[in-house]
Amino acid sequence: MKTLFDCQQLDAQDPLRSLRTHFSLPEGVIYLDGNSLGVLPKTAAARVAEVVTQEWGQGLIRSWNSAGWFSLPQRLGDKIAALIGADAGEVVATDSTSINLYKVLSAALNIAAQDVPQRKTIVSERSNFPTDLYIAEALCQERGYHLQLVEPEAIAASLTDQVAVLMLTHVNYRTGAMHDMAALTALAHQQGTLTVWDLAHSAGAVPVALKAAGADFAIGCGYKYLNGGPGAPAFVWVNPLHTERFWQPLAGWWGHATPFEFTPNYRPAPGIGRYLCGTQPILSMAALECGLDVFSAAQALGGMAALRTKSLALTDLFIELVEQRCRGHGLGLATPKAHDQRGSQVCLTREHAKQTGESSGAFAIVQALIARGVIGDFRAGDGNKHKDILRFGFTPLYVGFEDVWHAVEHLKQVLESGEWQRPEFNQKHSVT
Amino acid sequence: MKTLFDCQQLDAQDPLRSLRTHFSLPEGVIYLDGNSLGVLPKTAAARVAEVVTQEWGQGLIRSWNSAGWFSLPQRLGDKIAALIGADAGEVVATDSTSINLYKVLSAALNIAAQDVPQRKTIVSERSNFPTDLYIAEALCQERGYHLQLVEPEAIAASLTDQVAVLMLTHVNYRTGAMHDMAALTALAHQQGTLTVWDLAHSAGAVPVALKAAGADFAIGCGYKYLNGGPGAPAFVWVNPLHTERFWQPLAGWWGHATPFEFTPNYRPAPGIGRYLCGTQPILSMAALECGLDVFSAAQALGGMAALRTKSLALTDLFIELVEQRCRGHGLGLATPKAHDQRGSQVCLTREHAKQTGESSGAFAIVQALIARGVIGDFRAGDGNKHKDILRFGFTPLYVGFEDVWHAVEHLKQVLESGEWQRPEFNQKHSVT
C-alpha cells in the first residue's frame, strides 16, 4: 500500500518535476481540472501585457506586420503540429473547436459527396462531446445526412459501406477512455470512410500520431491541456491529401489566397491557410503561444513520450489510492485500466440511489472537494446507462504525485465525514 | 480659410474633448486609422491583466461563474445594442464578423426558402467589403443561390421580386459612403426581401437605428470604432421577429438551451443566445468591454448624436483643408460631401497615370505619411472604375481638430516635397 512518503519519493524522482515551475498555481489548490481549463503559464501575464500596451497601444495597425500578428495562426499551428504527429505548415490555430469542426466536417462531406455520393451517414459515439454532435446534427439537417450514434463497442460494426464519415473524439470527455486512432482509421478506410478526430482531450495530454494513423481531419482545443487561457483559439489539421480539394464553407478574408488584393471573388489560400476565416483575437492568441512554449521546454526532457509516462503513473496512482482508501462509498471507475485505452483523466462514478429517488451525490462530493481546494468537476449522467461522473484531469506538466495523495485523502475525508451532504454543496454549475 | 489657430479653437470648444483622455495614444502619432484598428482604452491594460492573473491564474475554472465569463457575450451585447438602435437582450458579442455573417445570412436564406422559395438571388454591392462577398459566395455555392453584385446607384432597381436577401455594408470601407438604411430596408421589404446589414464601419461611428429602420439582421466589428483591440470579438443582432424561426448552422454548445445537461441533441437557446457557438476568447472579450465602456462616458456628453456632430465637423474640416491646401497634386474625393451619405472617414483618390504605366502614388503617399506619424491607410483600386484610395478614419472619441490640421499639413508637405517617391515607401502591406 502506497504512503504519502512514497508519493513524495515519486515527485523527487520525477524527471519532469521542473516543468511545474513554468506555471502559476494558486496557493492551497490541487488542480485536477486542466482538462477543462489549463493553468496560467508564468510568461503569459507579461506577454499579454506587452501585446496590449506595446503592440496594440503603441504599434497600433502597424503591428499586423511589425509584431507578426499575421503569422500567428501558422506560427502557433506549427507548435501544435509537433504535439499531434503532423508536419509544420499543416495546422492553424484559429476560431473555436466547434467552428473548426464545422469546417472539417463540411469539407469531409464535400469529399464524400464526390467520391462516394450514395453515402448519407455520419457515424459518431453517443457519448461524444455534445457540441460535436450538435455541429454534426446541424450539418446533417442542412445537407440531408443521417447522424448515427453508437456505443463505443459498436463503432467497428457500424462501419459499413454506407458511412461517409466517422467522427470521433479521441479521448472521451466523460470517461477518459481513449480510442485506437490507427486501428479505427484503418477500419474506416477499408470501407472508404473518412475520419474526423476531435483532439480536445488529447493534444498535449497523450501522444497523437495523426499522419502515422493516416487520419483525414482533426481539430482540437487550445485551453485544456495546451494551457492557452480561457477560450483560447482552437486548431485545425487537414491531411495534405485533402487540403486543397475543397473550400471550407467559412470562406473569410484570412483564408483568401491574396487577401490584400481585395478581389470580389474568393480564391482559397494554398494549404491549411484556407481554413482560416475572419480576424483572430490577438490577445488570446498571444496567451496560447505561452502555453505552447512550455512544451518546447518539455521537449528537452523527453517530450510527449515522457509526459505520457508520467500521466499514466499519476492516473494509475490515483486509481490505486481511491480503490484502497475510499472503499465502501459507492464509487466506481469509469476510466479503463488498460493503459492503451486511457487518456490523462480518471472518472469515478457514483450510483444513483434510485429506490429512494436520491441523487448520486457526485455533484455535491465534487463541490465539497472544491471547497477544500481540490478542483475537479462533475458531469451529470442520464440516470440510465451513463452514471453521474466525478472527473479528475491529471496534467503531467504541473500535477505531482503528492497532489494525488492529498486529493484522495480529501476525497476520503469528504466521504467519511458526510460533509458533502451539506446544502451549500448543491448549487449547480459546471463547464467543460 | 481656416488656420491652425481656428482648429485649436475648435478643440477648445469641443464638448467631447475630455473623451480623448480615456485612451492611450502613442506620442507623435496622429491616428486616422481607427476604422481599421481602434486605439487602446486606458483601462484595458489593467483589466486584461486582472483577467489573466486573477480570474484565470487564481480563479481558474471557477471564474466561469465567479467572474461572470458566461455572461460576457450578453453583457457586451447589451452595451453594443445601445449604440445601434437595438434593445438589450438582442445582441451578442461573439466570434468574428465573417463568421457572424455566415450565421445570419444562412438564417436569412432559411427564412426566404420557406417564405419565398422560388427566389434564388442575393443582391450586394460590388465594392462591398470582400470578406462579406466571399462568405456570401460560399453560401450561394452551397445552397444554389446567385450573388448579384451591383453598383450603389443600381441597388434600388435591382430589388425585384426575385431577390431573397439584400446584403449591404452600411458604410463602405473604400469610400466612406453611407447607405440610407431605413429607405433601402423599406424598399427591400416592399418586395418581400430580407436585409442583412454589416455595421463594421458604423457601430460607434455613426448613429444606427436598426429597429426603427425595421432591419432584419446585422453584424459588426469589435476592433474598429468600438476600440476592442486587435481581433476583438464581433457582434450579431437579429430582429426579434426572426430570432427563433430557425437555427443558425454553427450550432455549438454555447448556443444550446441547456448546455450543461449535455444532451446529445441540439435544442437552440431562446432569443439571440442561439447565435453563440463555441467557447469565446475571454481575454479579448475583456478588452472589448473596456472599449465599450468609453461609450458610457460619452453617453453623458450626448452619446452617438454628439459624436456624430463632431465626426461630421472633423471630416468636413479635413475635406475643406485638403481642397484648399493640397490642390494640384491629382487628389480627388471619393467620400460624399452630403452629410447623410457620409460615414466617419474621408477617402481621397489619386489618378493612375495610365499613359506612363506609373502607379497612382497613393500607396507611397500613405507610407510617407505613416513615416511622419500620420497613420491612415491605402486601398488599391482596380485600375478601372475604382481608383487607388488614401483612407483616413476620424474617430470622434479621440481625434481632435488640431490633429486634422497637422494631418493635412503633413500631406501637403509630402506632396510638395515629392518625398513619397522615395523607394522605401513602396514596400506593400495593409490591413482592413
Structural write-up:
2 copies of one chain form a homodimer. With 432 residues, chain A is of the alpha/beta class. Chain A folds into 2 domains: 4-40 and 303-426, Alpha-Beta Complex (Aspartate Aminotransferase, domain 1), CATH 3.90.1150; 68-298, Type I PLP-dependent aspartate aminotransferase-like (Major domain) (Aspartate Aminotransferase, domain 2). Chain A has helices at 4-13, 44-59, 63-66, 72-81, 97-115, 130-143, 155-158, 181-190, 210-213, 282-299, 303-325, 362-371, 401-417; strands spanning 23-24, 30-31, 40-41, 91-94, 121-125, 146-150, 163-169, 194-198, 217-220, 234-238, 331-333, 345-350, 374-375, 377-379, 388-393. In chain A, the strands form 4 sheets. In chain A, strands 4-10-9-8-7-5-6 form a 7-stranded mixed sheet, with helices on both faces. The model of chain A has no long low-confidence stretch (mean pLDDT 95). At the A-B interface, helix 2, helix 3, helix 5, helix 6 and helix 10 of A face helix 2, helix 3, helix 5, helix 6 and helix 10 of B.
Keywords:
432 residues, 4-stranded antiparallel sheet, 13 helices, homodimer, Aspartate Aminotransferase, domain 2, Aspartate Aminotransferase, domain 1, alpha/beta, 15 strands, 7-stranded mixed sheet
